[in-house]
What we know:
By secondary structure, this protein is mainly alpha-helical. It has helices spanning 54-84, 90-111, 118-139, and strands at residues 2-8, 11-17.
Amino acid sequence: MTTTDVEQAGHTSEVTAPDVVPFGWEPTRTAAPRDPEDEVLFRFPAADDPTPGTRRLLGMSLYASFLGLAGVGVGVRGLVSQIGGGVPGWYTWVLAFLGMVSVALAVGAFLSIHRRVLPLALLTAAAVPLTADIMLAVAF
């Protein structure tokens, strides 16, 4: 465990963070990575990071909102199908799984917003399971 002291209003407290953080997350931001291979892909932006461009953030947000609205539509359609009966037992689980994969890819896109191509690739990839979700919802 890594420990650091945090000062707040004259009080000092000790904060511990795990040494190993999953999925390439960095627990604290260093000034510069030593090796390009050491640089993480996904992280929450730090206070000293440059702000992403307004057009980039707006475009990603609009695209993600369309993905979200389509996901809500699939969820409503799946609920109606489930209440109506006549759907196989795997239907709900596959519908939910594909929706979660799409959401995870969209979240990854926003966590990698400071990269050049990765957010666009992840948002595009998020449309693939959602399209499968839409086709599955329409089929039943």
